[in-house]
Specification:
Blueprint lengths: L22 E7 L2 H16 L3 E8 L2 H4 L2 H7 L2 E5 L9 H22 L3 E5 L3 H12 L4 E4 L10 H11 L2 E3 L3 H9 L26 H6 L5 E4 L7 H18 L3 E4 L7 H14 L3 E3 L4 H13 L3 E4 L7 H4 L3 E5 L12 E4 L4 H9 L16 H11 L5 H4 L6
Helix pairs in contact: 1-14, 4-5, 5-6, 9-10, 9-13
Length: about 400
């Protein structure tokens, strides 16, 4: 169920007392997908002797009900409602950012934050970053410097980087891009992607668990890509038609809550009826990674435009078909087949000509990002006035 916001903000007016000897790091999570990446980072912060984590939940967590998943794992220190159910245009997103900035600012004051940590490029991260940077709270940014078009992702991600005081890029290329953007090289720490952290801990999905999902051989994970409605539907139709032609058992996962969701969702729901494909609103991360591992062992594949197809899938050696422009510019591991203008035939032809590598190769690190991020936060003087002073480095 969607989260019901509190009736009053009066309880946010008194700062919480600090834990002696510890720096309080506010970690902001806004979506189910980004939370899977942040979870090992939050654990590493909790485990660090000089740090403590304060988790703030926002964004589509409160629309999709996945805030309950966060609350089951960690104590939630704050909740920041932004989007309204059914409000799904880009203007609605802009209005949500305005609401988010003021609410995040109040949360940081109440929590008594020493620093704020955000990941990626979504509007929740941008609102949280703006509130921190303008409010004089040190901001750390994970996965800055990447290229990926999304809807407004490219601009949003780089804007967050210019607001941030500490940078945790996932790849050497992203780190170099941040330095070339004028960020202080001493504040850029190439730590890899936390998407790789803990993957070994998740077992392959069992026969029983797979059967409960229809024992899929092909998973569709397709999000809106900022196209006009007809193009969004055409891309979704191309993926569905390709999947149907393969004769494989298909599981479709719901698109995220970006503008244009309804166009993708309509095609997927129709395919559930006409093709008998299974539809699932959400898979918790252990189940999702376990499914990727099962697909990898049984020559299955994931089709769509999620970054999971380029990062997690590569790490577990699962073949991935990336369609459309949403991930354009992102580093592409060799497990990925890219089809810029998708049709059922184009996807089939690209997949037929693809040579799957013999061993997993990816540029996103070795699975130790969380501890490396926590170590930098622990060693950094977050109270230093110099940290908050931003100056182009060239």
């Amino acid at each position: 169920m969607p989260f019901e916001p509190p009736k009053s903000d009066s309880e946010l007016l008194a700062p919480s007392p600090k834990t002696p000897g510890k720096k309080r790091i506010v970690v902001v999570t806004g979506t189910r997908a980004e939370y899977g990446l942040l979870k090992p980072v939050i654990r590493a912060i909790i485990d660090h002797p000089l740090l403590e984590a304060a988790v703030v939940v926002s964004g589509s967590h409160l629309l999709a009900g996945t805030h309950a998943e966060v609350a089951a794992d960690f104590r939630v220190a704050g909740i920041v409602p932004m989007q309204r159910p059914g409000a799904a245009t880009r203007i609605d997103d802009a209005l949500a950012v305005g609401a988010g900035v003021s609410r995040f600012a109040r949360s940081y004051y109440k929590i008594n934050a020493d620093a704020v940590l955000v990941l990626g490029d979504r509007i929740e991260a941008f609102a949280a970053a703006a509130a921190a940077s303008i409010g004089g709270v040190p901001l750390a940014h994970i996965h800055g410097g990447d290229r990926a078009e999304g809807i407004a992702d490219e601009a949003m991600r780089h804007a967050i980087s210019k607001l941030a005081h500490l940078h945790f890029p996932a790849t050497p290329s992203s780190a170099e891009r941040l330095r070339r953007m004028g960020e202080n090289p001493q504040r850029v720490f190439m730590v890899g992607s936390p998407a790789i952290d803990g993957l070994r801990e998740f077992p392959e999905l069992s026969d029983q668990a797979a059967s409960e999902l229809g024992d899929p051989q092909l998973v569709i994970l397709l999000h809106p890509a900022g196209l006009e409605p007809g193009a969004e539907r055409d891309h979704a139709t191309a993926v569905v038609d390709f999947a149907s032609a393969t004769g494989r058992r298909v599981l479709m996962l719901a698109p995220n809550f970006d503008p244009g969701r309804e166009n993708v969702l309509a095609v997927l729901k129709a395919a559930a009826s006409s093709h008998g494909f299974r539809f699932q609103e959400h898979l918790p991360r252990p189940q999702f990674v376990g499914l990727l591992k099962r697909l990898a062992r049984h020559d299955g594949l994931i089709v769509g435009n999620s970054s999971a197809g380029l990062i997690e899938a590569a790490a577990v050696h699962c073949r991935s078909v990336n369609v459309g422009p949403r991930q354009a510019g992102r580093e592409t591991p060799p497990n990925v087949v890219t089809v810029p203008v998708p049709s059922a035939g184009a996807i089939a032809a690209a997949l037929a000509s693809h040579q799957m590598p013999l061993s997993p190769i990816h540029p996103y690190g070795e699975g130790d990002s969380g501890p490396r991020i926590a170590a930098v936060l622990g060693e950094t003087d977050l109270a230093s006035a110099d940290l908050l002073r931003k100056r182009c480095a060239y």
